[in-house]
Every structure is written in structure tokens, then in C-alpha cells.
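User:
Hi there, any thoughts?
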Amino acid sequence: MSVMVRIALLRPMVRLGPHRWGPRLAEVLLTRSQMVSGLPGSTARRTAAAEEAVTLCRRLAAERPDQHRVALARALVARAAAPDTVPVAEAIGQLREAIAYVEDTDDRSELVVLATARGLLALNLHLCGEVREALRQALRARATWRACGALRPPERMRLARALLAIGDGKESLGRTEEANTVRREALELHRGLSAYRRIQWTGIGASAATDLAQGLAATGAAREALDLIKESRVDVELWSRVQPRSGRPLLARAMLIEAECRAQLDEPEAAVRLAEQAVGRQRATATAGTPHAGAALAHGLLVLGDLTARSGRPDDAAAHLTEAAALARNGHDDVLARALLDMLELRAAAEDRAAVDVLLAELLPLCRENAGRLPEVWRPRLARALLLRCALTVDEPTTGSGGLPAEAPGRCGTAPPDGPAEDGLAGGGAGPDGDGLAAGREAVELARLLAGGDPAYRDLLGRCLFTLAGAVDLAGDPRGSAELLRECVTVRRELFGVDPVASRLGLAEALCNLGNRMHALDRLEEAVGIYRECLDLLRADPDRIDRAELLTPLRNLGLTLSRLNRGAEAERVRDEVAAVQETVGAGRSDPS
């Protein structure tokens, strides 16, 4: 007998014997609310069935609460899971009410309701930005499912949904590798079903594959992520047709992930084309009024802007990022911060100081406001924003403690070819503004805190120390600048030990500037040793290091040797400078 016929027969019977026939009608209504169909009006019919079940169970529970509380909990869970436009806050309230009815139980049927409710609560909490509480609920849902013992196929898929919620929470907290682990587990649960059941639960399988591909792309495993996207493409496209409300956004997200993979595999134009197609789909979804489509469109524009910038089109990238930021200002702080940071990099590269100041004025308060809520995510962003603020100060045309142009911070390579002052050290010039110096000190403190908890932030700490050292030197304090540079050298030595290729130039840059500070402090012998170490570091990798990088430390070494009256050594250094200049075609003469 079909579900609709059973519902039609049970409704008049409930009026005659509500407590006898009501639970049976509620059971059939709940079954109806879970029947997925691609036919027009399916969503409305599922929602109506869930609402009728809640109304019926509330009436029964009001008369006999002990007998019908579990049925009411199941109805509330089904209503919260119905695919309509119910506000997230309302769904959260329904799920919390359901959890309260079955929280303290050892009965398996009640544990199943409890686990389902916790998993759905985690999903809804994540949607409204409560990442930490969402992760806590998802972990409790997983533990409850495990307490249920052997799971039937539908229950395994609800466990997979809870695992995906765990993955979302961990990724939001920057723990992408852990997120990938649980996503693999969710995907394996789907793959372990029979062929019929895999089709029945296509949405879960498609979501698991897409989420895992996103995590793999974020960790640099572009080839594996791309293979996974191709493998799941049929399921994702099928789901977008059967359930367009959830499937079309998923398809657009899969296209954005594929675009990122193409970019990582050196296919920038293909990446941009894919991202443009995905954003076009997201615009159509947002125009149709799909829930949460605005946030998805903002994220898509953010990805498109990043890919466009990497393909060498900064103006187009700025336009995409500006639109992303405008959409994200409607309550999507995460996307807004990422868009502002990307725009800052573009405006700084274009030397648009006014635009950078405007962007920083918006970004800094945003980061401070959220740093207490999610420090793992927002403290690094705050440190980066403060670093940019300090770098602007150092880039201003002021003079350093040696009376010469200030050293440019934070770029690859050694310090610029200014060299230390030969004699008569002048005092500092105009110096950095107080806000820039204070921003640099705050950035360093934040970066020290982050690097102490996660070595991945040592590179950020090195950049903050290097930039603050330049600002402190401009303020007329070469000794304080030298202390910061010594710490920077220590940090970059650690990075060099892990990845010499990526860290060699950064370490050489810090050593060269530290040598300049030693020269400014008249610690000339120490400066000579530091310059020689810098040169040895650069000469050790001639295949990757441009010989032009040798010019600055060589000139500075020659000047320092001249001040020590070691003329023969200084002459040999000048000869090497001339040879390097001839090799690289540099037209500059030795300043000594």
C-alpha cells in the first residue's frame, strides 16, 4: 500500500482513536517527509508532511508526554531536516527541543533520534557561524552513532553526514588534514553501500567527494583532488538535476574546486574559464532566491578574483574581489576578510597607498572583532593586516639609522644595494609614524604566539620580525633593530633546515640587513662574518640563485673591510663585484 493511501486511511481513524492510531499516522508522515523526488512540488509535500507530524505529535504528547515524547522528537528532527526555507534559528530551536526529549537514554531507537538530531544541529550551527559549538555537536553525534552498534544503510549515511559536519568544523579552524581524514571516512561509508543504496544516497556521496576534493586542493594535492572531482562528476550532475535546490550549488562548488586544481597544475586560463562558469551558475541560483546562495556567490567571486590575479589580470581581479566584499558585508565576515586581504595585496603591488589605507581601516577592526571568537582563524589575519600596516611605514621615503634609504622589507632576495654608511653615522630620518610602529610590534607579538602553538606560522613570524626591524631602524634605534633581526635570522634558520630551497633567499636577506646593523653599531668584525655567511649561503645554490643577488652583500662587505683597513681583502671583493656586474649586465659601479 502506498504511503499516500495509508495517510488518507489513517487520518479519519486518528479522529476516532488518537492515541491508538496517531503514532501510526505520525510514522507514515515521517516516512513521507523523507521521500526524495525530482517532481515539481516534492519539497512542499515533504515539508507539509513533516509539519503535520509535528502538530499531531505535539497534541499527543500534551496528553501523554511519557508515551509520545520520542515520537515528538522524531517529528521535530524530520521538520528541521525538511528541505525548505525554514530559518536556521528556527531549525536550531526544533533540534534542541528534540535532543532534550531523548538526551538521557540507553534505548537504541532513541539513540538513533539523538544522533540524527545532533548531526543536523551541527550543520545548522555551522551555517550561522557557530563553528566551535557545531564541531562539538558533530563529535557528539559521531559518538552517539557509535554507541548504537551495527548501523543499517540509512543510519550509516546519517553518520556520514555527521562526519562531513566534523570536517567542515575542522577545516574552518584551519585543521585541514584532520578534516580530510573524516571526509575520507564518510566517502568510504558511501562507497560501502550496495549499488542501489549508493544511488539512493547520491547526495551524501557527492557532498563527501566534493568536500574531500576541496580539502585536498587546499593542502596542495591538486592531482588527487582533480581525479576525485572527475570520478564524482556524474553523481554531482545527477544530484543537481534531481534536487536543484542543493545540487546546483554543489555543482558550482565542484567547478570552483576543479578551477583551483587547474591553477595549481599550471593551467591558469582553463582555471579562470571554469571559475567564471561556476560564478555564472551561482548568480542564477542567487537570483532564484535559493537559501545561502548569496554567501556562495561571494565565495565564488573570491575564488575567481584570486585565480584572475594569478593569471596576470589585476584589474579584473580587483573588480571581482570588490563585488565579493560587497556581498560578504551582509554577515559573511570570513569571506569579507579574505577578499579585503586579497585586495590589499593587489593595491599594495600597484602602490595605491590611499586604497590600501581604506582597506586596512575596514580590515583591522573586522579582525579584532572576530579574534576572540575564532582565534585560530582571525589572529593570523590580524597579524597579516598589522604587518601590511607596518610595511607601509617602512616603504615610505625616509632614511634609516645609517642616513641611507631604508631597506625594503618582506621581499624575496637580499636587502637593496644601499650598504652601510662608511663613516659619520647620521641620526634617523623622519622615522615611521607611531601607528605603523605600534602595528608592527603587535604583529610580532601575535606571530610569536601563533608560532609557539603551530610551527607553520614561523614564516609569518619571520616576516613580521623583518618588517618591524626596518621600522625600528627608521625610528633611529639600530640596536633594537639588530635584536629583532637576530631573532628573525634564528627563525629563518629553522625554516631553512626544513626547506632550504624556499627559505634560502629569506635567510640571506635577514643576514645582510643584520650585517648592516652591526656596521651601524661599529661592530665591524661581526658585520664581516655575517656578510660572509650571507654570501656563502647564496653561492651554495648557483642553479637557483641569480648572481645579481650577490651584489648587495659583496658591496657591503667591501665597505666594511675598507673601514677595517683591510685593503687587500676589500680589493678582492671589488674585483668580484666587477665580475658579477659584468656577468649579469649590471651597469652600476662599486660605490666605494
